[in-house]
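Limitations
The structure tokens in this dataset are predictions for the assembled complex, not deposited experimental models. Users should treat interface geometry with appropriate caution, especially where small molecules or nucleic acid strands are included. An illustrative entry is reproduced here so readers can see what is and is not provided.
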Amino acid sequence: MNTIILSAIFGVVMMFSGIFIHNRSAYKSISSVALLLLLVLNITESQGSPLFHIDTTNFLHFDKFGLLFNSICIFSTLIYVMLSGRDIEKAGNNTAEAHALIFFVLCGIGIVTSYTNLLMLFIGIEILSIPLYILTGSDKKNLKGNEAALKYFLMGSFSTGIMLMGIAMLYGSGGTFMVENVVKNGIVSYLSALGMVLIFIALCFKVSAAPFHFWTPDVYDGAPAVITSFMATVVKVAGFAAFIRLIEGRLGSMGSQTDRLIAIVIILTLAFGNLTAVFQQSVKRMLAYSSIAQAGFMLFSLFAVNDAAKEGLLLYAAAYSLATIGIFAVLAKMDDMTLEGFNGLSKSQPLIAALLAIFLLSLAGIPLTAGFFAKFYMLSAVVKTGKYLGLVIIGVLFAAVSAYYYFKVIQAMYFKDGNIVLAPVTARFKYLLLFVAVLIVVLGVFPNALLSFLYF
Amino acid sequence: MYFLDAAINEASTSANYFPIGLQLLCAIGFVGLMMGLTHLLGPKRKTSDKLQNFESGIEAVGNARQPMAVKYFLVAILFVLFDVEVIFFYPYAVNFRQLGWSGFGALAMFVGFFLAGFYYIIKKGALQWED
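Predicted assembly:
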């Protein structure tokens, strides 16, 4: 509850600070302090002492999983704002409003990680999406950004419509909005299965799983790099939190074909994301496709839906968000976002190149980085279910494919010569980037450092 | 949340969907029939006058696709936003006595947020007509 109420209030505070404070670099500091406060209060709530005592029976349920997910999302946002605050200023004229919208997105995340009622899912997804449509088009002079915003808005509205239709079907079949199985005499009614499939489609759209991923490359490529960084990490990961709660609660009302359906979506997502990313010349676009590929891995948790899957999803959320935010923070400082733009980075900026390499290795899932354990937990969760073991093999194969395009960037940085054009970076930026890299390595060695929060 | 269970069980047989199906057929049939009939029976005289925009019988002036000040749109959308506020007042007014002070507090909070928004748009200059 703390996250939901306070992030909305902080959003309003950011809006008003846009009126009263005209020093544009102050917004970043205000936003960071507010995020830190939000993080602390969310952790105290997960320790069992919430600020607000509001009866949310039948609508929201705040369990350890959801609250830890909130913490991960808020922490990633904090890192994001501190790393990329300067670039948010450059992305549009209304910097304070951009920060406010980020807080409103966090409010939506607070809802989708803890809902027990499909109406709350709908409200949460909407609160999460609408600020993103605006943020995508925050650079008003950029034609590509405008196109991306309009595309995202139209596609997003359609998927919301599909979700509403699914919710209506589920209500029609069971007479309840609650996330629980309503199966009578062991027979799943057509309405219920249809409703679940419609919601499934809508959520697949939100997390950009194939075959509903077509908006992703255009939107991620068109939006300013800072905004893409936020959309591709925190928001996407929160979508998975919503997804796993739904699948966990209402798995039975989808019918006997659920496993096969999810397996097909996983294979398609992995194949589309990885194989298309191989051919990209622009690193920004490559990261868009890689985010689809990583979504494919996170989908494994929906297939398995057991404790290992939930732990894996948390770990994956942290590993993927931190690494991608780090890469985008550097990318936003670059002039040339193609692969050639990275040529010779290790000569001019050896530290940044090394940290970037760690992030890329983590995304590829190399041991000693957080990405390895994230993938490991996902695959072991599928093994534990004992169904469709072929999926695990496919997952490993595509992880190997993904190493190819991540290593291409590392190769460009270390083994090619070129003149790098990088906006000036401060020492603080480098230290912060170093901190993120250290976190990734620590999580890669002791994944329980994060997961123990789930049980204590 | 289960109070509708009984009603739904009763209504789930396919025979109960017959009227809905009938209504769908009627709706589609009516639209198809009317459109078909007008195309078949109506006289077709295509003159240049007929292709002009209809402006309440007055002769059309200029082009409709002119750039228009976005202020109109802004004011209109703000009006809609604040107009919707009233929707929340009606149910409150009806249940004024039963809701008591807690209801009053909730509504005061709502109005407070709303005034904050109003203050924001005024400060942002959204209602300034002259540049």
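Some entries come with short summary sentences. For this one: Chain A has a mean pLDDT of 89.
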